[in-house]
């Protein structure tokens, strides 16, 4: 088959084949960009993250659930020691109060177990207290947005009344995803802020507090499902755009190869063909478009990576929150482990976006 026949072959091209074909091209472009990109120190990224509200929240979330997971491990270690020797838990306080050096020499293993149990119990108390304070801190960071959300709902209600309260108007303004999510977010925010006021002992009604926590979990579940659905749609759209751009770039490269092939038989071409080929080879638009495509492909690659991190974060949140909504009997620590995964995913995304913002700022 000649080169021209191969170039006009219209057989469908798989996405994997295109990605493999341009894998080196994309990463070479990335290497070139990184070679001229300004250096951003990790300390500068940490500073920006800590100073931002989202960074404070995500850092506190990671720290809280890291403490919870470590606390779970320490608690299980202590319980295993106590289960192995039940007398340890009964007598460890008394033994530690009257501990003598000769007792350590006579019963080193028993004293070591008593010491581990005592230290573990002390760590559990302090870690649990710090975890509760971090949880309250995150509630405080989120506090205060309900008046603005109420104002947005009030404006929409006023617009509905102004347009006549007709069925078509109500359907247009309220029966859409944006309006539904506004109502869900308002419900979640009000419950969240009332829970904080309970934690700060502004009001005290345990049953109502438990009901609010349940309502908060339900509204958050709905918000997670909407966000996850939107991210999956965004991922498919971005993959499709990247696929189309890869096809465009592939066609341009094959046209360039065809141009080189025609150069070899240029002496047999007419003056008009030679002039067209010369204009094609020296076209600034061609080179500019090639650079734009490569830059856009890199943006899509980064965007897809960020969407994957969002999907991972939302999936972890969904699994953790579902255990509360459905009162599922799961192994102890399930909520903490998946919440830690969510926090790490969110922090990774924030790190990458902050680094890119600083690189753009320093150019």
Describe the model.
The chain has 363 residues and is an all-alpha fold. It contains 15 helices and no strands. Helix 12 runs antiparallel to helix 14. The protein is extended and about 105 Å long. The model is unreliable at 1-12 and 25-35 (pLDDT under 50).
N-end to C-end Cα span: 49 Å
Would you tell me the structural class of the helices and strands? Answer: mainly alpha
Q: Strand percentage, roughly? A: under 5%
Backbone shape: extended
Helix content: over 70%
Number of strands: 0
Order of helices and strands: HHHHHHHHHHHHHHH
Q: Could you describe the largest sheet, including whether it forms a barrel?
A: none
Round the mean pLDDT to the nearest integer and report it: 81
How many distinct helices? 15
Taking all Cα atoms into account, the compactness measure Rg is 31 Å
| Low-confidence spans | 1-12, 25-35
Short characterization:
The protein is mainly α and 363 residues long. It has 15 helices and no strands. α4 crosses α5, α9 packs antiparallel against α11 and α11 crosses α12.
């Amino acid at each position: 088959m000649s080169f021209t026949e191969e170039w006009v072959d219209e057989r469908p091209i798989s996405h994997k084949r295109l990605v493999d074909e341009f894998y080196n091209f994309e990463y070479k472009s990335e290497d070139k960009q990184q070679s001229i990109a300004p250096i951003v120190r990790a300390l500068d990224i940490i500073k920006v993250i800590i100073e931002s509200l989202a960074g404070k929240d995500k850092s506190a979330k990671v720290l809280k659930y890291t403490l919870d997971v470590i606390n779970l491990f320490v608690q299980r270690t202590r319980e295993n020691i106590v289960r192995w020797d039940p007398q340890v838990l009964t007598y460890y306080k008394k033994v530690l109060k009257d501990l003598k050096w000769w007792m350590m020499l006579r019963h080193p293993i028993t004293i070591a177990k008593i010491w581990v149990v005592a230290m573990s119990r002390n760590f559990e108390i302090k870690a649990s207290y710090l975890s509760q304070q971090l949880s309250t801190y995150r509630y405080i960071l989120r506090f205060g947005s309900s008046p603005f959300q109420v104002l947005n709902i009030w404006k929409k209600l006023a617009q509905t009344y102004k347009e006549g309260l007709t069925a078509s108007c109500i359907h247009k303004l309220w029966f859409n995803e944006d309006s539904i999510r506004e109502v869900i977010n308002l419900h979640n925010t009000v419950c969240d802020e009332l829970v904080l006021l309970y934690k700060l002992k502004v009001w005290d009604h345990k049953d109502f507090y438990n009901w609010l926590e349940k309502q908060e979990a339900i509204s958050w579940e709905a918000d997670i499902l909407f966000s996850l659905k939107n991210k999956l749609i965004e991922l498919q759209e971005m993959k499709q755009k990247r696929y189309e751009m890869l096809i465009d770039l592939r066609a341009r490269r094959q046209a360039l190869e065809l141009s080189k092939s025609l150069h070899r038989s240029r002496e047999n071409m007419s003056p008009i063909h030679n002039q067209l080929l010369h204009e094609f080879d020296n076209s600034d638009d061609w080179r500019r478009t090639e650079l734009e495509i490569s830059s856009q492909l890199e943006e899509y690659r980064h965007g897809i990576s960020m969407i994957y991190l969002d999907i991972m974060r939302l999936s972890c949140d969904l699994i953790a929150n579902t255990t509360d909504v459905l009162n599922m009997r799961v192994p102890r620590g399930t909520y903490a482990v998946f919440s830690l995964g969510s926090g790490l995913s969110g922090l990774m995304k924030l790190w990458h976006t902050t680094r890119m913002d600083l690189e753009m700022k320093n150019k």
